[in-house]
Amino acid sequence: MAYQYPNKQEILLAKVKGKTGKISDKTHEEHLKLYTGYVNKTNAILKELETLATTLDPANPAHANQIYSEIRSRKVDYTFAVGGIINHEIYFLNLGGKGGVPTGQVGELINQSFGSFEAFKKDLKATGIAARGWVWTGYDAKTGSLFNYLGDAQNTFPVWGVKPILGLDVYEHAYYADFFTARGAYIDEFFNFIDWDEVNKNLAS
Prior knowledge:
This protein is mainly alpha-helical. The protein has helices at 9-16, 25-53, 70-94, 104-114, 117-130, 176-179, 183-192, 196-204, and strands at 134-140, 145-151, 162-169.
């Protein structure tokens, strides 16, 4: 049986409900409906790939072809769908905290990588304004440093070997109902409610 991703919608909503200031519960509720869609579609694709595997023929262009084929369409869309699960779980679990200056290893790495927390905030905010979809603070074990990565879609993250520890969704559905076009104000409010304990857990995992 193909692996099936669990739907953590209720857990994620409980993590943030009433705990994110001007980022409203209604926005989170609607946002998490999209997350559930990603879970359902990811699981459906995995089942389809499992079924396809029973008859898969690499020599059959209907099965394997770089223009269009059964395996290509599913595997390309799988990365987008599963990215929607992972990104949103990072985002919602990172919220519901008290914000402020981070402590622990994350605080140390921010100072080491950016020079100060204020410099980190400026870089993350500017990256969020420049992105079309996502920003991730990632830890690169090779350099021992943090970097704020920009992504324009669910599946543009992975930088090989980099661990995403903080996720910021800047698609309009994450903030428009509360902030309209004031994305910068949304990012400021996001900072006020980061759960740095959770970010430290991501770094340690």
